[in-house]
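Hi V.,

Quick status before I head out on leave. The structure for the redesign project is tokenized and pasted below; the design run finished overnight.
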């Protein structure tokens, strides 16, 4: 079954139809009009007696002049900030592309041969659609421009990429107005990526005037198309990509591109309201936050290099979003895989922060401080920290990247990632996609087999839940207190309190429901970490051991059952791994239980509670009073 057939099957399914209704109900008018507009363009433009491709081609001025110095300088800065490992990975991909093979999303495709490049070959268009999106976005150009200092360092790569640009320019399949063009090669998101990558390549080739002229002409016609197809109707991170691409194109052409530069700046200014009061992007994905931040940092740097003023909105987003990323940075320096997030799509977290420093964005926030507007709370400090997601779902009109992760936790000890979120397999409407968004894939509690928010398809979301949370400190004990209620049948409330002091974190869950059911708390362990049951005469517990030896203990408290199994983990698009999973369960309509995480080896743990409040915690021979929660 193709991806399109799979989408159609899910949209016509009786269980999915209510999700479609709820998703559409929350969409904004501009989004719905945009869907209609794209559908009509797809139907009408290919049948018009007008050559849309030639119309855009005729817009390119003869003797097109460029000013690549600013983009070249910015590309050099970004390249140097990536780090040796990332640059080496880019060079390996570029060298592979010189043989005709492109690897994206863990899948390698032979795209070029004696007959040229198969831009719309069956293998290119196979699910997931993101593979073709990145390929048509000319991601392969970035492997050269960010991996090598210049064409002289990789002549075979440079020659291959020049041939591919010429092939794209000549191919009928890639023409504007070809059947399906707005869902294939001319998806505005892909065009944005193509403009960004082409402009960097145009500046990178330097002395090869023929190739540079071809790249410049392609940038111009792509920018002209993008200027007429800005995704105001889609919004979110797409709009930020559009704005950054227009600023880049305007910088390359200076005088002739000034209108695009102004348009791009206006788009980025309008998109600044996507960032919350703590600087976090409102889709609440650390991956998309990092990508969006890099776009704003690039726009700020390009404007400064061109001698243009930087609007307050762009500068403020760059500073606040950088501070957010600094505060969110975990001990291992890799983004937490919250909501739709994977490794490898955005530049590494330390590289993004180096880039911010290099382009002159002054953000000095300390790592490990909480971000209440986004709902991310840290308990602990240094290499031993627990991260709690107590925030609201993503925006109601953009539910696609939202997961059922309310009150989920992630945990690091000795700098190692021990409890982790699930990541994302792809955006195709598969069982893996649905699982990755489900409550079962996160380190939180599930009532029966109920999803707090129904999920389905690629991006559908049912009635939302709205968690609330507070974080306080009293008498040396940190307390997080979060809760949400599900109003639809079956109705229940989940409250999670997390206490931290010394070398331990107590996680205590309370579920109250109309009817009795099995309540499950899951802990998904990082795949490189061992989960071992310990029964040495003390209280049964579990040990989390990484490459450096034992790192932490998990002690179940009050649960009727504790079982170990495995679960699926998606650290990169297209990659699935197995990892250990600990499940704690109890039965009832009013259930409370929890677990203790400790970097020590406690032999005896007990919680002092009266069914409503938690008064204290005993660990071995010590007792600590816990602050009351409202």
């Amino acid at each position: 079954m193709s991806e399109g057939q799979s989408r159609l099957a899910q949209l016509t399914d009786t269980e999915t139809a209510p999700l479609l209704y709820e998703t559409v109900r929350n969409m904004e008018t501009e989004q719905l009009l945009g869907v209609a507009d794209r559908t009509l363009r797809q139907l009408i433009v290919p049948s018009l007696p007008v050559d849309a491709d030639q119309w855009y081609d005729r817009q390119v001025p003869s003797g097109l002049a460029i000013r690549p110095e600013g983009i070249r300088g910015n590309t050099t800065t970004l390249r140097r900030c990536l780090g040796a490992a990332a640059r080496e990975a880019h060079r390996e991909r570029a060298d592979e592309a010189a043989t005709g093979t492109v690897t994206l999303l863990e899948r390698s495709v032979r795209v070029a041969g004696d007959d040229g490049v198969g831009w719309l070959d069956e293998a290119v268009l196979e699910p997931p659609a993101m593979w073709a999106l990145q390929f048509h976005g000319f991601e392969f150009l970035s492997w050269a421009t960010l991996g090598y200092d210049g064409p002289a360092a990789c002549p075979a790569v440079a020659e291959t990429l020049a041939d591919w640009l010429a092939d794209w320019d000549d191919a009928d399949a890639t023409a504007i107005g070809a059947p399906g063009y707005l869902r294939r090669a001319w998806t505005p998101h892909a065009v944005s990526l193509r403009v960004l990558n082409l402009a960097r390549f145009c500046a990178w080739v330097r002395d090869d005037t023929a190739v540079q002229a071809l790249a410049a002409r392609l940038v111009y016609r792509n920018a002209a198309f993008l200027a007429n197809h800005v995704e105001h109707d889609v919004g979110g991170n797409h709009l930020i990509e559009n704005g950054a691409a227009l600023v880049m194109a305007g910088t390359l052409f200076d005088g002739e591109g000034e209108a695009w530069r102004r348009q791009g700046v206006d788009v980025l200014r309008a998109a600044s309201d996507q960032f919350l009061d703590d600087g976090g992007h409102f889709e609440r994905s650390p991956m998309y936050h990092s990508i969006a931040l890099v776009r704003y940092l690039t726009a700020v740097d390009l404007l400064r290099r061109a001698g243009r003023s930087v609007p307050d909105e762009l500068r403020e987003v760059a500073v606040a979003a950088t501070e957010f990323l600094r505060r969110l940075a975990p001990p291992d320096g890799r983004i937490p895989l919250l909501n739709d997030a994977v490794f490898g799509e955005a530049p590494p977290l330390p590289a993004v922060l180096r880039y911010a420093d290099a382009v002159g964005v002054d953000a000095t926030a300390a790592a490990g401080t909480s971000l209440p507007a986004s709902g991310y709370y840290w308990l602990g400090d240094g290499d031993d920290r627990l991260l709690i997601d107590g925030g609201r779902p993503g925006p109601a009109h953009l539910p696609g990247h939202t997961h059922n992760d309310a009150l989920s936790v992630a945990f690091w000890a000795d700098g190692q990632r021990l409890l982790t979120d699930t990541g994302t397999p792809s955006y195709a409407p598969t069982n893996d996609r649905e699982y990755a968004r489900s409550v079962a894939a996160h380190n939180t509690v599930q009532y029966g087999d109920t999803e707090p928010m129904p999920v389905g398809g690629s991006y559908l979301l049912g009635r939302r839940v709205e968690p609330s949370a507070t974080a306080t400190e009293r008498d040396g004990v940190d307390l997080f207190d979060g809760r949400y209620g599900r109003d639809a049948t079956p109705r229940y409330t989940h409250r999670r309190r997390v206490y931290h002091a010394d070398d331990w974190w107590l996680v205590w869950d309370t579920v109250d429901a109309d009817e009795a059911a099995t309540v499950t708390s899951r802990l998904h362990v990082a795949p490189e970490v061992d989960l071992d049951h310990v029964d040495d005469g003390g209280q049964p517990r579990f040990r989390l051991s990484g490459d450096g030896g034992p790192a932490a203990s998990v002690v179940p408290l009050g649960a009727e059952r504790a079982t170990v199994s495995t679960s699926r983990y998606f650290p990169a698009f297209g990659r699935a791994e197995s990892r250990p999973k600990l499940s704690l369960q109890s039965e009832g309509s009013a259930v409370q239980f929890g677990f203790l995480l400790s970097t020590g080896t406690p032999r005896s743990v007990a919680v002092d509670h009266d069914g409503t409040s938690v008064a204290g915690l005993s660990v071995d021979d010590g007792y600590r009073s816990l602050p009351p929660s409202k």
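Above is the designed sequence. The CA atoms of residues 331 and 415 lie 5 Å apart.

G. will cover questions while I'm gone.

Best,
W.
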